[in-house]
Amino acid sequence: MHHPAISIKDLHVSYYGNEAVKGISLSVQPGNLIGIIGPNGAGKSTFLKAVLNLIPKDKGTIHLFGNSIQEARRKIAYVPQRNDIDWDFPITVLDAVLLGTYPNLKLFRRPGKKEKIWALECLDRVGMKDFSKRQIGELSGGQQQRVFLARALAQKADMFFLDEPFVGVDVSSEETIVKILKELCWQGKTVVVVHHDLSKAEEYFDQLILLNKELVDFGPVSEVFRTETIAKAYQGQFAFMKEIGV
Ligand code: ADP
Ligand code: MG
Question: Model pTM?
Fold first, then answer.
């Protein structure tokens, strides 16, 4: 039977009694590049973490490829928001990417030569092979984000979740990342990206999830990306609106 990549029904999440995500239901088909957009504090990261079961939810059901997140875990790669990563953690670029191979190793096996070659291939794909021996803390923002994408690639996942991957990233890294994300979609993978720079949303994504605690809109970019919908999600945040000229 054909299952949606993501199926969410009535998802509610709160912190200390304050609702951050309210009653979200949606279903996403595989092979799409999906943007989650909404103003700061709209609950975008919370939504992502709840979908991945990294934080508890109050209510709702979530299925990934028709399975629970526990069952689907190996097929899911997640690149957290910059601030959620400890960049001082002493680990080399290669070892960080090798961590991505763990879900596919047999229990208690450590990555060997085969995994190392694969990790270097993934680093090559993001243009970071020459940096394999560096500490992750020694890289620029764009390089760090590319390494984390390589780690996600190393996992051979079917679904990728990235939280604000373009924040603090140079233009050429952003282009490299977008190109790879599009390639993943062409291969039938599902890619979900939290993003708050509206100016590129139309260019990057197939579908948009427009979020402001509640689901404001969800659908093909051309349909969601209209003035009134954007205005509804970004109510009062005119700095953003100027950016895209609405
Ligand atoms: P976004 O990613 O869209 O900027 P977040 O999901 O980070 O939004 O946050 C949504 C709301 O939940 C905000 O009001 C934020 O302050 C609050 N929040 C996020 N994380 C926590 C937390 N760990 N504890 C308490 N409140 C939180
Ligand atoms: Mg966030």
Answer: 0.91
